[in-house]
Target: 3-hydroxyisobutyryl-CoA hydrolase
Amino acid sequence: MDSETILRREGRLGHIILNRPQAMNALTHRMVAEITAALEAWREDDGVAAVLLTGAGERGLCAGGDIVAIYRDALQGGKATAAFWADEYRLNARIARYPKPYVAVMDGVVLGGGVGVSAHAGIRVVTERSKIGMPETGIGFVPDVGGTWLLSHAPGELGTHVALTAGSIGGSDAIALGLADHFISSSDLPVLAQALAHGDAVETVQSLSSNYFPPSGLAAERSWINECYAFDTVEQILGALQASPVPAAHEAAAAILAKSPMALKVALASLRRARDLASLEEALDQEFRVSLRFLAGSEFTEGIRAQVIDKDRNPRWAPPLLHEVTADDVEEYFADLGPRELGLAAQLHARS
Model:
């Protein structure tokens, strides 16, 4: 059977290749375990100076978690998915604090879990083909894998806009949001991999980076985005968007109204809370609480059913209207999990 993750040693480079091109390299629990084991082994290996993450095939780095598998498991109680998320979030934290240069090539499609294994990297590369997004509210879920941490720390309210509309952004936008660092032409990626095997990672990436790339369209819209998303309720944000004279704001409002009311309100609360947390680990702990609550409910499975399983694009959200989601409903998603707590922040504090 073909390996879902290819691990290579090339000179002084440890190269991780996500290898499910038929599924746009969607992550499985096995892949997370293999990446984790490789990073731990290479951490202690003096022969490895840097790590490179890429995806097999031409379509993208990673389309996120395998949501079909998650859907099937959720219908059976969700135990396998809960275990998968726990290990995935631990991997996200490990990547963020990896002591050696970790170069993530965010070429092509990079969604959800794909952002988790790349946007926390020390060196993040995008190309003219990059299409990056956190589409969770469109399937009755919320940004996870550290997405609330990343988006809540984006300039102004750009991250709030991306999270609530569940839209995708290009490479220039990703740099503007702080999700990426370097823009390299896709035609230079083979050269990048070869050069990293024998040269300094930072110098190699900088030598191939282009100082001239398309300006960020999203950053150009920052004025109305900051103004309209500067509120702490979804209803207020929608009101501002609908009252704006900017056509793009009306398009954003329409996109938001198509999403799960519960997911929207919990996502906004998650972003606002993450902004005040002290570390990525605290955000991941919070996301784990929220994710398990969605896994136990009906919104997530209904969203996947409508978008991926039956593909009728007609989700039956419950409740169907924003005003029917109360503050108490939202608060329940953030309640302590007791013995099921992920505990990443506590582990970080214990090590420091």
